[in-house]
Amino acid sequence: MKGLFLLAAIAISAPAMANICEVDMVDLRSNRLITRIRSNDFGDGCREGMKACRLEIRQRGLHGRADCVRIEGRFPDPDSRPLPDYDPNPRPRPRPDQDNYPRPLPNSPARRQISVGESVIFQNRYVTVAGVSFNGLFAVRSSDGRYTVMSNIPREQLSVTNGCNLGLCAGAKVIDVVSARYVSIAGLSFYDRFITLSEDGRYTLSGEIDRQQLAETSGCISSRYAQICVGNQVIDQFNRYATIAGIQLDGRVVLLSTDGRYTLTTNVDPSRLVITR
């Protein structure tokens, strides 16, 4: 009888002895926090929390785009957990094993083999691959009607015009943070940079641009307190209405004015915005 009472006491007290663990669901491309899941940890590596996080990824259709990361440190009781210092500008928690930028894949389309007849970009001009030499150098033909042939070109100087890299795909509409203008991705350079095509009617190609200079025109960014997405209407720090037009790689956003001029404002801190819808 005493043994039965002992087993019952252990069963009742087991949940109370469990620790609380937290698991972050993070975006693999930007390492931004999507959501945070809390669960009991019975010394099994927060298995229930990890299972709940992976289920959430499947339900949201984020397989291959998000991952689950357990936050180190366990707390005996949520009510006894020490309160953190107040942060007026909360930032998403990045993955602990990566920096704040998406990493290129070893087999990135930007470095793939190119074929004869393929359209590529060379020295900010569209050209067609005319042939390849025995030692691996390329000959290209201009596409401006003159059909000028240029040869002895290393693969590293040719940018492909299809595929994706660092979360951006050829043809995607993005925002150039420096010029504060809409552009489209025209090419992927060999060294993980991008060629853009202007959308001002002149259709000029840019030089190679770093990924952090380009803001995506879709997606969301989350903090512990709220989520802000492209298309949300907000009020900025100057009490003006605007629309979220882009998400920058560093977690800042691009605003589109709604005063009839439709100007873009880049490098805006999302913690200074009030979301209205």
Question: How would you describe the overall organization of this protein?
Answer:
The protein is mainly β and about 280 residues long. The protein has helices at about 1-15, 45-60; strands at about 20-25, 35-40, 65-70, 120, 125-130, 140, 150-155, 160, 165, 170, 175, 180-190, 195-200, 215, 220, 225-230, 235, 240-245, 255, 265-270, 275. The strands form six sheets. Strands 7-6-5-4-8 form a five-stranded antiparallel β-sheet, with no helix packed on it. A five-stranded antiparallel β-sheet has the order 20-19-18-17-21, with no helix packed on it. The longest helix has 16 residues, at about 1-15.
Radius of gyration: 25 Å
> What is the straight-line distance between the termini?
62 Å
Low-pLDDT residue intervals, each spanning 5 or more residues: 10-17, 73-100
Element string (H = helix, E = strand): HEEHEEEEEEEEEEEEEEEEEEE
List key phrases describing it.
single chain, 277 residues, five-stranded antiparallel beta sheet, 2 helices, 11% helix, flat
